[in-house]
Amino acid sequence: MRLILPALLALLPLAVPAAAQTAPASAPQPVYELRIYYPAPGKAEALNARFRNHTLNLFAKHGMRNVAYWNELPRPDAPEGRVVYILAYPSREAREADWKAFGADPEWQKVVAESEANGKIVTKVESIFMTMADYSPALAGKQ
Fold first, then answer.
1. Which interval of the chain is the signal sequence (predicted)?
2. C-alpha–C-alpha distance, residues 82 and 56, integer Å
């Protein structure tokens, strides 16, 4: 995790909307969600295919902003690596509503059923919620 976070945070300045760069300090900031997926053994490619072919478009359909996606380099204890990504939302409440609508979408339910016909492709998901620090170069317009 130590190596992933600096790489992720380096890309966040590219993800800040122009409105957030000029908004007063009291204006609400976007909420970023860092998500880490642990693929089931032998299922990393199936997980990446599901994101590539379906999930990103469905996230966008439900108001989630795709910021960036990474594949962790293999390690001895995780030879397939993890899938790590960041989504952005206007607020935490918007995040909850977006995920509720996403989970209820019949298209998503069909994608899950088809992609998991031979078993689950994810064993664990972690989520970290973040807001941009007031000293972030992205908020100062430095990139």
1. 1-18
2. 17
Q: Quick check: helix, strand or coil at residue 136?
A: coil
- Rounded to two decimals, the pTM is 0.78
* CATH code assigned at 112: 3.30.70.100
Report d(CA 54, CA 117) in Å as an integer: 16
In this structure, is residue 8 part of a structural domain?
no
CA–CA gap between residue 57 and residue 12 (Å, rounded): 21
| Cα 60 to Cα 72: distance, rounded to the nearest angstrom | 23
pLDDT in tens, 36-75: 999 999 999 999 999 999 999 999 999 999 999 999 998 8
The reply to whether 16 falls in a domain is: no
